[in-house]
Design a protein that fits this description.
Shape: elongated
Helix content: 25-40%
Number of strands: 11
Radius of gyration: 22 Å
Bound molecules: glyoxylic acid
Strand order of the largest sheet: 7-6-8-9-10-11
Amino acid sequence: MAEQSSLLIVNNFHAETIAKLDARYETHHLWRESADRKRELIARLDGRCVAAASASWDCDAIVYGLSSLRVLACFGVGVDGIDFARTRAAGIAVTNTPDVLNDAVADLAMALILATTRNIVNADRFVRAGKWLEGPFAFGAGLAGRTLGVLGFGRIGAAVVRRAEAFGLRFAYHNRRRKEDVPFPYFASPRELARHSDILLNVLPGGPETQGLVDLEVLEALGPEGVFINVGRGSSVDEAALAQALRRGLIAGAGLDVYAAEPRVPAELLAMDNVVLLPHIGSATVETRAAMGKLVIDNLAAWFNTGKLLTEVTGN
Ligand code: GLV
C-alpha cells in the first residue's frame, strides 16, 4: 500500500508538499544528511525504495545510485537538474509539473516587462530619496505597437502573449522549429528574432542545447532601445555578455528572474540600475506552489496505485 511505501525526498523543494508526503509515505530526507550518512541511507534503502521526489532544477546525483529507484517525481517544469542519460540507463521514469505554473510565470514576465520599460524600481527609489521635490522622473517607453519577441515559444510564452495582447504589443518568436499553430512571424535564429524585437523575452529551458544562446551578438541585434527579459533559465544567457551590453548601452535594460549560478548573481549586474533583479520567483505564488506540490503527490499516487504517471517527461 502507498501509505507504507518508502519515499526518498532529495531536497527541500517545498515544505508544505514535503509535510503531505511525510504523512503518506515512510519518507527519508536526504538533504538533511551529511555526505557519509547520505551514502549509508542510499545503501539502506536500496532494494526497498522505488520512488523519490526532488526539485526539477536541482537533484543530488547520489540518488542515481539507488538501484531500485523507478520513479523520480519532480517539483517544477524545467528539468535541467535531472541527468536523463542516467535515468534512461537505469529505467527511472521522471515527472515534472507543467501547465500549473504557466499563469504565475506569465504574470511575472509581464511584471518585468512593465518594471523595465517604465523604470518602476528606480522610480520607487526616486520618490523615497526625496528627489521628486527637485523635479520630475525621466520618461519611460510605452508598449503599444512595440514587438515582443519570444525566445522559446511554448505554453508559458502563449500565456504571456494572452496578457500582452491587451497592452497592444505585437509578437514574433524563435524556436528550433517553426510551430504550425503559432500565428506570429517566425525567425530562424535568436539573433534574427532580436533584430526584429523591441523586447526579447527568454523562456528557453536550461541544458547543453541552450547553453549561452543569448550572447553578445543577440544582444547587439536587440539594439540600444531594446529590453531583455529572462524567465527561462540563466544558463541560456552569456551573463558576461549581458553585463557588457548593459554597461555599454548596447541594450537599454534587462529584467531577470533567473541566473546561471543561482542564488549567486554576477556582481556587475548587482551594481547596475538598468537591470531589475528578482530571486527566481516566477512560479512563487502560494496557489501555484501548492498546485505544483499536488501534481507531485498525484504523480506518486498514480504510480503506486496504477503504475502510470500523469505528467512524465523524457528530457529531449
Ligand atoms: C522553475 O523554475 C521551474 O522550472 O519550475
